[in-house]
Protein 1
Amino acid sequence: MNSSNPIQVREIGWINVVFLSLSPLLAAFGLWYWIKTASFNWQTIVLTLIFTTIIQVSITAGYHRLFSHRCYQAAWPVRLFFLIFGAAAFEGSALGWSLDHRQHHNHIDDEIKDPYAITKGFFWAHMGWLLFKPLDGRRDESKAGDLLEDPLVVWQNKYWLVSGILAGYILPAMIAWSWHDFFGGLFIAGFLRAVINHHSTFLINSLSHCFGKQTYSDKHSARDNLLTAILTFGEGYHNYHHEFSSDYRNGPRFFDWDPTKWIIKSLSFIGLTSHLKTIREEIIVRKRWQMTEKTLRQKLQKRNPAIIDNEWKALDQLKEKIESAFKHLTSLKNQYQDIKKAGQTILAQEVKSLKQEIAKAREQFFDLLKAWHDSQLRVFTLIAA
Ligand SMILES: [Zn+2]
Ligand SMILES: [Zn+2]
């Protein structure tokens, strides 16, 4: 995109170049020396796993879903925790991270405006973009209003590096010192762990933008990828996330591997998080079905349409019915939301009958979708025959 723009020379960010090159070397040296000196012990391994987890979750639940997208609200101890341990991922401050990320969402795949556009290649999206200073030398602070209102975010923006060094290197080293493994705490739970956190996050910007399924939309490069979902505690459902970025879940179905959503939800039971935003089920299901429908249409265009003519007509009729059932269900749900928002005094009997109508409309919508999927299966059988 924007390929007509002239090539713009960017200044190399030497601090990042040195840090991103040196930390894997230090991690590799530390691991080699740790094993060579027979220092291996399970306490340090467990400590590394714990630090990897809390720091990665501080990025996914904190930097990403809370600060960048405002998918939910969190009490100050939770925000402080995410800010302190998020800094230990050495991915910058929450403010800077969020501004870059908002720009990525607003200008996805744009070679100039998307800071880590996959259209500039896998390495660029993964970490190449970090080796240069931003084009105009600064970020778009106009998108930071809500973040600057949070004194904790402003504080962390000033002191994130000190906080990161203390929480990410010194703290694990001190803990491991208690079982006489200061070196392992620093190099394994510190340097090696930071490299794991780095590349897990970076894979969302690279791998999840080129490998995986476009379950909800093919209008952008984001893809749903189980491998990155596992590595990043649920962030790999990236196609869903780019379609519905206000949802606190990245994997919306109960069985989707998204521990971050389980953590945010669990914290809501004890009042530490609230106002969890979700997208309505029928909107998600319709979007998924629309993608399936589009893919089927593209496949069938390559075949002889006469073979499946009748089936295709039936699918088209069902499509119309699904769309009108969706509209009906949406208007009923909006009606119900309006009543709740306005706090209208309405007879209990009327609310009850509206709820019954919603249940009926929902059932009809899902029955039609099922009928569509059955027809789709018949089409596949005919094609295969
Ligand atoms: Zn993305
Ligand atoms: Zn995002």
Note: The first strand starts at residue 73 and ends at 74.
Protein 2
Amino acid sequence: MNTRLIAARTLVRVLDGGQSLTSALEHTLQALENPKDKAFVQAVCYGVCRYYHRLQFILSQLLDKPIKDAEIYALALVGLYQLAFMRVKMHAAVSETVDATRKKSWAKNLINALLRRYLREQESFELQADLNPSALHSHPKWLISRVENDWGSENAARIFHANNQLPPMMLRVNALQTTRENYLQQLADLEIEAEAVETCPSAIHLIKPVGVTALPNFESGAVSVQDTAAQFAAGLLELRAGQRILDLCAAPAGKTAHILESQPNLDCVAVDIDATRMERVETNLRRLNLSAQLIVGDATQPETWWDGKCFNRILVDAPCSALGVIRRHPDIKLLRRADDLIALPALQAAILKAAWSMLKEGGLLVYATCSILKAENEDQIAQFLAEHADAKEIPFDSNPAKHGWQILTGDDNCDGFYYARLRKVSLAA
Ligand SMILES: C[S@@+](CC[C@H](N)C(=O)[O-])C[C@H]1O[C@@H](n2cnc3c(N)ncnc32)[C@H](O)[C@@H]1O
């Protein structure tokens, strides 16, 4: 089947069906055999999501009236994406996209006409797009306002730019199996170009991404794929042998695994509300030969699963808007609505409050999100500190947040991420 049509149908599942691009593509790619076709469909689908708001604007300029047929609409976006962003042979791209309309002759003429007109007047369409903020940054208007409101227009523009870049592939070296130097050598032996990440002792940047099956000893757990920002969590927990530790929103266990790789002699409990995601925790820990007590439970209701023994360390990697990982999941820009963000801070606050009740005096709680919004991060922590006299923040040296550590997307090539460290102190002291 025509790969443009396959890409368009995948995008319809996201645009109309509200499905995530990851799951829509999983379904699509399973049915494709040729690796080149798979790579092409994947690149087009990610690209259209990444540049959806720009392409949509240009398309609206090219049309007298909107396209009602979802598949043809998506195909028009696929066609424009190829012409505007891909190094493809222009005329082949147009004719393949036109062919993908199949028996719909009205659509054939329409797609042909609009793609050819775009090619003739490309410069002027692109200039017009640059004058529209949503098209310029390729983000929805509400999101532009939220980020500008929190970080100012200059920082916001940097964040939008970073969100639109291809994300780097980062590895976490399993300290129980090898050292970073050793693994870099193994990669070099296979001519896989890579470098150590200066800011994070466990992280390796693969200059050119490869499939995990090409990585030496991946199956036996020598490395995992994880962004640098997420690799800071384990270090911030100040782990010591013999501690009892709770990872409260654990699935799929990227951070649980790193915690156990950093300090295997821990009594580690990993909780998540989602039983399906918990299955991935099992698979991931098994590959790494690590173990923890796994509980499917609601973090806001510890009374339904907790045995009453307090923890020395708690990680709250809270459910969040995930606006810090847009470069990895550009469909977030299409699927997330401003309203979705209303309930999140209350859920995060409820999880934090419940977590605090399970922390030993003198214990440390690390709160993390992959968000860049203050409401989920520094405002959340400010509110928590105001309500908990026995919480003392351990500050970070330099960062743009009033409380905690805000990594803005693209800083040091990281995903957008947030951390705060809270020590439980004695009120009697
Ligand atoms: C950011 S993800 C965790 C990522 C994970 N810590 C890692 O590093 O791989 C947030 C997790 O919170 C879980 N979650 C959401 N609401 C929850 C709740 N009320 N109780 C427990 N887990 C919850 C979600 O199922 C999701 O797996």
Note: The first strand starts at residue 169 and ends at 173.
